[in-house]
Specification:
two-stranded antiparallel sheet, alpha+beta, eight-stranded antiparallel beta sheet
Length: 187
């Protein structure tokens, strides 16, 4: 009994300590500032990947290239000329059923291949339950949530409301670029 209580207390303290160590990234856009807490305690591979792009300033000058109001805004892949970023290798998908795609959370964008996420991420505008992990099949695996907006959701909502159209083969592209001016770890 005492051993299980002690184990539970240690786990609780460890989880709280990890949560306090979660990095925060400040993303400056031409629409305003978004502060993002990255959940290193829940998705360490995705967080390390996002910080690799952030620390190497690879998000600077990229755009939110896919905006679907009532769904999500997606960035981290293209510049204003719709030239795609040259990325690092794909990462393992860390989607978990207990870390849902709720409003304000950040998730890794990917193709139909489960472990294909690289630099692109999206911010959920609503609770997108259909993107959650339900099973280990390619269809049910879901999208890995790795953080959440802790300040600046009004900026995210403003981005969600911009006019969109087509740009070459791409749809839902803002007609006026929504630029990530910079993304930096908060110190």
């Amino acid at each position: 009994m005492i051993r299980s209580l002690l184990t539970a207390l240690i786990l609780s303290i460890s989880t709280a300590a990890l949560a306090q160590d979660n990095p925060v990234v400040v993303m400056e856009t031409n629409k305003g500032t978004i502060r993002i807490e990255l959940w290193a305690d829940k998705a360490p591979i995705s967080v390390e990947n996002f910080l690799r792009y952030t620390d190497n300033e690879l998000y600077d000058g990229l755009i939110f290239h896919r905006v679907i109001n009532g769904f999500m805004i997606q960035g981290g892949g293209f510049n204003a000329d719709m030239v795609q970023l040259s990325t690092y290798e794909p990462i393992k998908n860390e989607a978990k059923s207990n870390v849902p795609n709720n409003r304000g959370t950040l998730s890794m964008a990917r193709t139909n291949v489960v472990d294909s996420a690289t630099s692109q991420f999206f911010i959920n505008l609503v609770d997108n339950d259909f993107l959650n992990h339900t099973n280990d099949t390619p269809r049910g695996f879901g999208y890995a949530v790795f953080g959440e907006v802790i300040e600046g959701m009004e900026v995210v909502d403003e981005i969600a409301g911009v006019a969109t159209g087509r740009s070459g083969p791409y749809s839902d592209v803002p007609t006026e670029p929504v630029v990530i001016v910079s993304a930096r770890r908060e110190i």
